[in-house]
Predict the structure.
Amino acid sequence: MAKDAVGEIMITQAQIDERARELGAQISQDYAGEELVMVCILKGAVLWMGDIMKHVELDTVIDFMTASSYGAARESSGVVTIKKDLDCDIKGKPVLLVEDIVDSGITLNYLKHNLQQRGAKSVRICTLLDKPAGRKADIRADYVGFEVDDKFIVGYGLDFNQKYRNLPYISFLKD
Ligand code: IMP
Ligand code: MG
């Protein structure tokens, strides 16, 4: 594995665990008494979804979606397509989209509106990382793990050309 392309550790597993515990408690409070549909945006959010859901003390249903706007490039193409859709019906239900990173915001902006149009009761976003410098769409996450600088992030689910998702920490790609 080309580890020499990866920079220093920016965020450790212990920091992520602690943040997941805090946000899980917040989500449990905010949705008290409701049945929550947690939607993991594949593939990047897979580790973060696992961390968050452990700390959500609600009746919870999980589901998965795959959206694509990137291909193999570092910059978003701006065109979003749903490659794998939900199995469950979200009509009338509160939905929490769990994402790895909000960069341009184009993907989540599209997905949020798409799920609202299907009649979800509410659609909120829980992201591991927020990169405000990259924002193009008018969207913000309701629950943010960590804010990151304008670097290309890898690790803990985030990839470059499908690699580095398995790193148990968050780092960045050197130029
Ligand atoms: P968007 O630009 O907010 O639409 O981001 C869409 C997707 O691009 C995210 O869900 C990530 O999978 C990916 N992405 C955005 N920024 C980065 C990054 O810094 N590293 C790795 N993947 C990224
Ligand atoms: Mg991705």
User: Anything to note?
Assistant: The mean pLDDT is 94. The pocket of inosinic acid (ligand 1) is lined by residues 44, 69-70, 76, 99-107, 152-153, 158 (CB under 6 Å). The chain has three helices and eight strands. Residues 13-30 form the longest helix (18 residues).
